[in-house]
Amino acid sequence: MTRVEYIIIGHGIAGATLAAELRGRGRQVLVLDTTQPDSASRVAAGLMNPVAGKRFALAWRAAELLPAAAAFYRAQEQRLGQQFFFEMPILKLFSSVGEQNTIIARSADQPWQDFVADPMEPLASRPGVRQELGGLQIQHGGYVRVQELLEALAAEGEQAGWLTHETFDWTQLVAQPDSSFLYADRVHARHIVFCEGAAAIHNPYFQWLPITPNQGEVLDVACAGLLETEVLNKGAYVVPLGNQQFRVGATYRWPPFAEGTTPEARQELSQRLHDMTDQPFQVTGQRAGVRPAVRDRKPLLGTHPALSNVHIFNGLGSKGVMMAPRLAQVMADWLEKGVEPWPEVNIQRYLTLYSPGPAATGPASPASCS
Ligand SMILES: Cc1cc2nc3c(=O)[nH]c(=O)nc-3n(C[C@H](O)[C@H](O)[C@H](O)COP(=O)(O)OP(=O)(O)OC[C@H]3O[C@@H](n4cnc5c(N)ncnc54)[C@H](O)[C@@H]3O)c2cc1C
Asked: Which DSSP state fits 146?
C-alpha cells in the first residue's frame, strides 16, 4: 500500500507546479496523468507577456506573478540541468495609428512604464519585419518550453515513484471514515486535488463551476529570414524556438468546435504571420489544444463545499504559464496552512451555483462499494 498526503490528478502546468510546491514543502504526493500529447500545456507556446491585447492592458497581478514564475522556472533549470525559460523582449508591432497613439500614451504611465522600453525611442529596423507603423519592446517577458519541462519533471517523477502515467478512474476512489481516500486498493491519500485542465467539465464534484473549454491552435514554421532574439506580436505572436523554427499562435474558438486541427486556423495564422514578415516560411506542424477558460477569466482554486478533502486547481485559461507557479504557492498555503486563496481565484465566489445532489455526493463509501 502506498501512503501519500496528496493524490494530484493531472500533470499539466497546474498539476506540475502544485506537485513541485508540495514536494518542496516535504509532502508525499502521487500524480496520476493521462498521457495526452495535445493537452493545453503541451501545445502552448509558453509565452509570458505582462501587457497584451489591443487595449494594452496590464495582465492581472503581473508584477507579482511574473517574478514568481521566473524564479520557479529558473529553479527547475538548476535542478534538472536544462534550460526551459527564455527571457526575451516581446516586440509589439502597431497595427494602426490609433493603436500606436493609445499604447505610446499609456506606456508613459505607471505601472506600464516598468514593463516597456522607452516608447519615444525610434524603433530600429529589423530584417524581415514589417514595421511601417513602428512598435515598442515589452520587457520582463519571454517564453517557457513547457512540453520539455513537463517531460523532464514527469521522467523524474516516474523514476522516483511520485508520478504514474494512468487515467484516474472515479469508480476506484473509496472514501474512508476519517475523510481520507483509498484509490484502486493500492493508494491511501489524505487529500485529492484535481488539476485536469479542460477535462474538469466531466468531473462530477466540480461540474457546477463555470469552466468553458476554449480551443486554440498553433503553427510551427521554419523561417530563415527572421531574427531569433525577440518575440513578435501583432494579432498573433511569433516565438523563436531556435534553429530557425518559430511557433505562431494562437487561435481562440468557443464551443462547439471540431476536435483537432483545422484548415481555417492554418490560414488565419499564416495570414497573421504574413502581416508581420515579408520573409518566406514553411509550415512544419500544426497543433490544437483546449484551454480551461472560466466565465470571469480568473483561475479556480479551493475545496469542494461538502467534501473537505477534495480540491481543485484549475481555470488557468490562456495564461497558465505565467500564473501557475505563484498560484501553486497560494494553493499550497490553503492546503497546508489554511490561508484562504485570494478572493478573485477562490471557488467560493461561485458558491451560489452549487447545489448538493447526486453529481456532488462524493466518492463511494466502503459500505456502498462492497
Ligand atoms: C493553442 C494554445 C496556446 C497557448 N499558449 C499559451 C501561451 O503562450 N502562454 C500561456 O501562458 N498559456 C498558453 N496557453 C494556455 C495554457 O496552455 C493553459 O493555461 C495551461 O496549459 C492549463 O494547464 P492545466 O494544467 O490546467 O491543464 P492541461 O495542460 O490541460 O493539463 C491537464 C492534465 O490533466 C490530465 N488529465 C485530465 N484528466 C485526467 C484524468 N482523469 N486522469 C489523469 N490525468 C488527467 C491531462 O492529460 C493533462 O495532462 C495556450 C493554450 C493553447 C490551447
From this structure: H
